[in-house]
Design brief:
5-stranded parallel sheet; two-stranded parallel sheet; 7 strands; about 50% helix; elongated; binds zinc ion
Length: about 230
């Protein structure tokens, strides 16, 4: 009996030592983990702080994309393709524009006029109209006033507006000096005043100044600058 008992005691003391060993190992393991975890926690707090502050800053700003085009060319019309007419790097196809605009209209984008941009988002002098709340603002602009915009881009917008019962604006930055000017097959023809009037009356054009004669406004003197800006507004 005694022997058995001593053996049991021996076994128990072995187990106890084993347990102590395990606890010691666990303690070291936990201490090491805690040491590492300290950095993990700090990193986590840092990341959360950045996230929160980023979110706060982000929520104060609205990013409004302004997409700029120049000429729009119909690839289905041979008269608008070489050799009938030169191809230009600023050409964008009516077919691609159609896909892009349809996407915007289906995805609930609000095609802003320059006035909308200024009043509702820059100056914020008026609240966003109720029917526009929830729409995503974007500006679709065309530089230089090329004829292709009126002949190819406007019909696409008109068609989409009718199909989806949603109106949007194109912002045309034109150079009055070149309105109606057609320099032949070597360059792109420009819209006329009547084209602009037509798109404006239909409610699709917002016509803005791109300078009188398309000078680089950063490279001219004060007098020329005044002329380019003032004359283009007349
Ligand atoms: Zn230009």
């Amino acid at each position: 009996m005694v022997e058995v008992k001593s053996t049991q005691i021996g076994k128990e003391s072995m187990r106890f030592e084993q347990l102590l060993e395990n606890i010691k190992f666990l303690k070291i393991f936990l201490l090491r983990l805690l040491h590492k975890a300290k950095w993990i926690y700090l990193l986590l707090i840092f990341a959360i702080a950045i996230g929160i502050s980023g979110w706060t800053v982000e929520s104060n700003f609205i990013r409004i994309p302004i997409i700029g085009f120049h000429d729009i060319v119909d690839t289905q019309n041979p008269a608008e393709l070489p050799p009938q007419r030169l191809a230009f790097s600023i050409d964008y196809t009516k077919q691609d524009l159609s896909v892009f605009l349809e996407y915007l209209i289906k995805e609930n984008y609000w095609l802003l006029s320059s006035q909308d941009l200024y009043v509702y988002f820059i100056e914020k002098s008026q609240p966003i109209p109720a029917q526009k709340i929830g729409q995503k603002p974007i500006m679709i602009a065309f530089d230089d006033g090329y004829k292709g915009v009126h002949e190819n881009a406007l019909p696409v917008l008109e068609k989409l507006a009718l199909a989806h019962n949603k109106k949007g604006k194109f912002v045309l930055f034109v150079n009055p000096h070149f309105l109606g000017v057609d320099m032949g097959r070597d360059f792109l023809p420009h819209t006329t005043c009547n084209d602009l009037r037509d798109g404006y009356k239909k409610g699709f054009y917002d016509v803005q100044s791109h300078g009188f004669t398309h000078k680089n406004l950063t490279q001219i003197n004060g007098q020329e600058l005044e002329f380019e800006i003032a004359k283009s507004k007349l």
